[in-house]
Design brief:
two-stranded antiparallel ribbon; alpha/beta; eight-stranded parallel β-barrel; single chain; 12 helices; 288 residues
Length: 288
C-alpha cells in the first residue's frame, strides 16, 4: 500500500493576523491553509502575501502540511499571489472557485513561469455549480492533489440553507467524492461555521467520515481535536483490522477458501480496508 499522509484537519489561518500565524505553530492540525482570500481585507492583501510565504518557508511548523490559499486570477491580486507562492516552499496552492480544467492549466502555467517546483500541487476548491458539473475533469488534472469542498459558497449559489444534516448538499458532495475517488485524489469536507457548537461540528464530522471524506477544513483551532478524533481509527477498529489480516493470511497459508472473523466472511476487499486502517493508524502515530 502506498504511503498514507493524514489530512484529517486542514485549518484556515488568516495570513494577515500575526498572532494566528504564531498560534498555528503549536496546533495539532494535519495541515495549515494560510489564507490570502476571504479572511484578508483588500488593504492587507500584499502584506498578508509576504507573511504567508515567509511562514511557509520558516521551518517552524513541524510536520504540518503547509499550503497557501491565493486570490483568484480574476482579481487584482491573484497573479501576484501565484508568483509569490511559486517559490514559497509551500506544498500546494489552494485555488478558490475552480470551474474548469482550462483555469487549472492557467494557474499551473503561472506557477511554472514563476519557478514553482513540479512537486508543488494544487488543492482545487469545489464551490460552484459549474465545478460540481466538471468535478470529474478537475479531479483528473495532473497537478491537482486534493479537492476541497467550499460548502458555504456552494450553498449560496444553490440558494440552499446550510441546515443541520446538509440534505440540500448531499448529492453534490457525493458527486465530488466520486470524482476524487475515480482520480485517486484526496478530498476534504467543507467548513462548519458555528464555532460555539462543538456537538454540531462533531455530528458533521461523523457525517463526513460516513460519506467518505478524508478530512475536513476548519475555521477555528477549537475544531482541530474533534476532526482529528473523527478521522482516526479507534482502538477497536485497529484491533479488528489486525484480526482480519491475520486470519486471511493464515487461511491462505493453510489453503482454505473461506475466511471468517467475528462470524463474518472475509474477502479481499475487507483485507484491503483493514490494511488501509492500519496504514492510517500508523501514519497518525508517526505524527504524534
Amino acid at each position: 500500500m502506498s504511503q498514507v499522509r493524514p489530512l484529517r484537519s486542514a485549518l484556515y489561518m488568516p495570513a494577515a493576523n500575526e498572532r494566528a500565524l504564531e498560534k498555528a505553530k503549536s496546533l495539532p492540525a494535519d495541515a495549515i491553509i494560510f489564507d490570502l482570500e476571504d479572511a484578508v481585507a483588500p488593504d492587507a492583501k500584499e502584506s498578508a502575501r509576504e507573511a504567508a510565504c515567509a511562514a511557509a518557508a520558516s521551518g517552524q511548523y513541524g510536520r504540518r502540511v503547509l499550503t497557501i490559499r491565493s486570490n483568484g486570477l480574476d482579481t487584482g491580486w491573484g497573479s501576484a499571489d501565484l508568483a509569490a507562492i511559486a517559490t514559497s516552499t509551500a506544498a500546494a496552492v489552494v485555488v478558490p472557485k475552480v470551474s474548469s480544467v482550462g483555469y487549472l492549466d492557467e494557474v499551473s502555467a503561472c506557477l511554472d513561469a514563476n519557478g514553482a517546483p513540479p512537486a508543488m500541487t494544487i488543492w482545487a476548491m469545489i464551490e460552484t455549480p459549474t465545478a460540481i458539473l466538471d468535478a470529474r475533469a478537475i479531479a483528473a488534472h495532473s497537478r491537482v492533489s486534493v479537492l476541497v469542498m467550499g460548502t458555504n459558497d456552494l450553498a449560496r449559489e444553490l440558494r440552499a440553507p446550510l441546515a443541520p444534516g446538509r440534505r440540500a448538499l448531499l448529492p453534490h458532495l457525493a458527486t465530488a467524492l466520486l470524482a476524487a475517488r475515480e482520480a485517486g485524489k484526496t478530498i476534504l469536507d467543507g467548513v462548519f461555521n458555528d464555532v460555539k457548537d462543538p456537538d454540531g461540528f462533531a455530528d458533521e464530522c461523523a457525517q463526513g467520515v460516513e460519506l467518505g471524506f478524508d478530512g475536513k477544513t476548519l475555521i477555528h483551532p477549537s475544531q482541530v481535536e474533534i476532526a482529528n478524533r473523527a478521522w482516526a481509527p479507534t482502538e477497536a477498529e485497529v484491533e479488528q483490522a489486525r484480526r482480519i489480516i491475520t486470519a486471511f493470511d493464515e487461511a491462505i497459508a493453510a489453503g482454505r477458501g473461506v475466511v471468517t472473523v467475528d462470524g463474518r466472511m472475509i474477502e479481499n476487499l475487507h483485507v484491503a480496508n483493514a490494511q488501509r486502517t492500519l496504514a492510517i493508524a500508523e501514519a497518525i502515530a508517526s505524527l504524534d
